[in-house]
Structure formats: C-alpha cells, structure tokens
C-alpha cells in the first residue's frame, strides 16, 4: 500500500468481501483444478468468484437472477453462468460437472430454495457452505424478546457526536460492541 492507495476501496473487506473470499479460501479450502459453483453473485458472491479464480478452480459456475451480475462474474473469473430462475439449474450444473456433480459450492443468497439447489448439485464428497442465513436474524430477535438472547449485555449505544468515546471504549474493552446512533 502506498500514499496513493484509495482506502475507500478496502472499506467493504471487513464484511461482505471477506466473507465471500473466506468461504472459498478458508471454509471450503477450494483446491486447484476443481469445480466450484457460487449461488448468488452480489458483492459476497463476486468475492467468492475472484477467490476461486485465485485458487485455480477448473470451472467456476456463477448462478444469479440478474444477467448483468453474471456478465461481471464472467469478467472476474467465472467460466460458466446460469440464470438462477432456470428450472433446469441443477441439471445444467451437473452437465458442467460430470460424472456426478460439483466439488465445492457456496450459497451467498440465503434463499432456502437456492440452498436446496446447491445441495442437489453437489457430487460425492462435495462440500458446501452458506454465508446467507435468512431466518437467523428474525429467530435471534424472537429469542431476545423471550429473554434467551440478552444482547443488551454486549452492546453500548453512543450518540454519533460521541464517536471518539465509542472508539476509545471499544479499544479499551469497556464495550464489546459499540453502536452509533445518528440523531
């Protein structure tokens, strides 16, 4: 990094982009010359596409509802693309990965039907990960309401004007999770 580096480019690395790359590089530990399918190529999925290319995957299959995203995925390293609303999505993936399915798959959509397609696309000993958890936030909110998930013990809310204090408290360990409220 040098003084001309635009740090704004790296702001999303802490969440979405790191998640997609981490699923490929760490969670699944994708090996070179293998076949990977990425379901949902928003920012998290695009990061997974790039990481699969870095790993030298033989085929990188991007699946999404938007053709423009599939076009970008191709530019970033996807070797095949499939529209997610295609009723033959699983069959098309299996045609790309004979004799029995893909080696690795990542779901970045969090949609149960998509997750099922991902699982159905796996070959013997195939590995899959999902980084979208659609029902988790509502579930955790319900558990909080029941008193089973007391997150208020972890969070300290600060007014935006107290930003510096929030940073100081987070660094010192006084707060576990600082939340800034814009008023």
TrEMBL record:
Signal peptide: none annotated. Its cofactor is Zn(2+). Pfam families: ADH_zinc_N (PF00107). Residues 44-135 form the Alcohol dehydrogenase-like C-terminal domain. InterPro entries: ADH-like_C (IPR013149), NAD(P)-bd_dom_sf (IPR036291). It comes from the Eukaryota. Keywords: Membrane, Metal-binding, Oxidoreductase, Transmembrane, Transmembrane helix, Zinc. The chain crosses the membrane at residues 32-52. The keyword Oxidoreductase applies. Belongs to the zinc-containing alcohol dehydrogenase family. This is Alcohol dehydrogenase-like C-terminal domain-containing protein. It comes from Neonectria magnoliae. The lineage of its organism: Eukaryota, Fungi, Dikarya, Ascomycota, Pezizomycotina.
């Amino acid at each position: 990094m040098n003084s001309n580096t635009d740090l704004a480019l790296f702001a999303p690395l802490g969440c979405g982009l790191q998640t997609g790359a981490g699923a490929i590089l760490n969670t699944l530990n994708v090996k070179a010359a293998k076949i990977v399918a990425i379901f949902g190529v928003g920012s998290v999925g695009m990061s997974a596409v790039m990481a699969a290319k870095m790993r030298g995957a033989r085929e990188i299959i991007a699946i999404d509802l938007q053709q423009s995203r599939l076009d970008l995925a191709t530019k970033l390293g996807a070797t095949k693309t499939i529209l997610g609303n295609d009723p033959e999505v699983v069959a098309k993936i299996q045609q790309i990965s004979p004799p029995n399915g893909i080696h690795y798959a990542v779901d970045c959509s969090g949609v149960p039907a998509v997750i099922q397609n991902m699982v159905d696309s796996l070959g013997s000993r195939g590995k899959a990960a999902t980084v979208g958890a659609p029902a988790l936030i509502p579930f955790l909110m319900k558990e909080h309401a029941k008193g089973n998930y007391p997150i208020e013990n972890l969070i300290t809310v600060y007014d935006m004007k107290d930003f510096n204090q929030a940073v100081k408290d987070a660094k010192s360990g006084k707060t576990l999770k600082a939340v800034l409220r814009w008023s």
